[in-house]
Amino acid sequence: MKKTTIALCIALQCLAAGAAGNGMDKASNEKASTDRASVWDLSPLYASPEAWEAERQAILAALPGVRQLQGTLGQSAASLRAGLDQLSSLRRRLGRLNTYASLLADENTQVTANQARRQLGDTAANQFGEASAFVNAEIAAIGRDKINAFLAQEPGLAPHRFALMNTLRLAEHVLSLKEEALLAAASEPLQQPSAIYGLLANADLPWPTIKIRGKTVVLDQEQYVAYRADPDPKIRKQVFQAFWPAFKAYERSFGAIYSASLKGTVFSARARKFGSSVEMAQSGDNIPAAVYKTLLQEANAGLPTLHRYFQLRSKVLGQKQAGYQDVYVPLAKPSRSYTVAEAEALTLEALKPLGSDYTSKLQAAFGAGWMHAVPQRGKRSGAYMNPAAYDVHPYLLMSFSGEYNSVSTLAHEWGHAMHSVYSNANQPYETADYATFIAEVPSTANELLLADYMVANAKSRSEKIFALSQELENLRGTFFRQAMFAEFELATHEATEKGEALTGEGLSKIYLDLLKRYHGHDQGVVKIDDVYGIEWAYIPHFYNDFYVYQYATCISAAAFFAEGIGKGDTALRERYFTLLKSGSAGEAYELMKTAGVDLATPAPYRAVVRRMEQVMSQLEALLAQK
């Protein structure tokens, strides 16, 4: 009943940039490596790779027992409970198994043994999926009346109630036993485009070499992130002119990989009798179609605010018209760099409005080996929190550079981790997982509370200007950029559903048109060169269908919570923690509404745009001071 794939909550800062890099230069690497809690401890998962392998074999040996459950679930309330408990126990073990394998693989993508272990873990999960493929069809056949009677008879079924009701809700999309088994068997090959993309984009792509201030730089993803914000506009231009052609040279290959992924998604949607891919994606959490539609509508309505921000940037940078290479350069020089320990201390201070219980739990977790923060060659790009080891604790990956963006990313990812801490402490395994629709709220709320703290505690005019500009960049990257990504995803899936051919060149054209519209190219706001249309190939999150739009919806909800909690609204804080503790004990959209935010209406999105306008006005007033 619970998803067998590991839910990775990808970091806001990484996604806002497209796909963040693995670190900065050698000095930053060495600095981060001296901090405490910079490398995770995986021993609570398994004492050794050999122990992991023994558990994998034990799980595989248990799979025949799963198949033997077929035909027994409807016999009685007791048999239904016994069967679901058995399935839940194996999923729980698989979550831990795949957490260990994926963390080791991401720590260094160039270690073949770790990649092989990840594949073995994925295969075990897929084999479990095949063995249990009958479950949804069997529950659908039992029917709502009998299931309700079983729930009344057997209190031990309570942890499975929500999943049972969800399965019955989706019964029209459940196929015959043979068809379900076939789709389960197809899951592994359907995952391959994502795996192939990851290897090409992270490990195998030949990167250009350029000279920057006399230093030879291999312009891979980590160095691109390091130098795209360089204060020298000539260097930024040089970096963009060298980096993006590296992706453009493989446009056909990236296009074939992503097109294969799209076709796999459309195949699954049609096989399950959904009207569209986006309908299938939102059906699992029962998200109203109005949410996606309203987000894109309001993001486009708010483009004048985004363009105002870009024009303000150009004014501050002394440019008549910015180019795309100028989007990431800070509007003010940071006053300092940070160690991991300093970032943690700053985060604790910023999150005091959440209460002492939250900050004490967070402080204890900081020193417990949950996070890998050291930049290193071969490390998976981006950042995430992995919550799948329910019996241990969450794990986090990022590459801490010492810049403020890394501090913000740290606060973000620990927001995810603390969400899992509260959910796991208040929910059984079966309902401890939470929908992505909610997942980005506590992480983004942490970032906004951090931003508010940095503005309020700035020690100088320049420091305050930096803090305000960072908040603006956060709002741009999380709301508008994710909405643009969401619009691209919708366009590409709809084109595939219509049977249109999507080549790499065609995908670049779709993306370029969006890039130009969102950045005001035709209005002379930001100049977008055609080569930047290949940026879609840089975004790994497109392989997780219709995930990114929830960053934009979640920052809208997070802004609501952060503003009220920051002002001391204890009733709102109580509702917020109720949300964190609820896991998937109810439908995500309804849980959010109960907390006070309806994301199917324009109001939350307009509030985010208003917040951006207000921050810009603050910044303009500061800049006007002599």
Automatic annotation (TrEMBL):
It is an enzyme of class 3 (hydrolase). Residues 138-205 form the Oligopeptidase F N-terminal domain. Keywords: Hydrolase, Metal-binding, Metalloprotease, Protease, Signal, Zinc. Coiled coil: none annotated. Its cofactor is Zn(2+). Residues 1-19 form the signal peptide. Pfam families: Peptidase_M3, Peptidase_M3_N. Residues 228-605 form the Peptidase M3A/M3B catalytic domain. Its EC number is 3.4.24.-. Binds 1 zinc ion. The keyword Transferase does not apply. Has oligopeptidase activity and degrades a variety of small bioactive peptides. Belongs to the peptidase M3B family. This is Oligopeptidase F. The lineage of its organism: Bacteria, Pseudomonadati, Pseudomonadota, Betaproteobacteria, Burkholderiales.
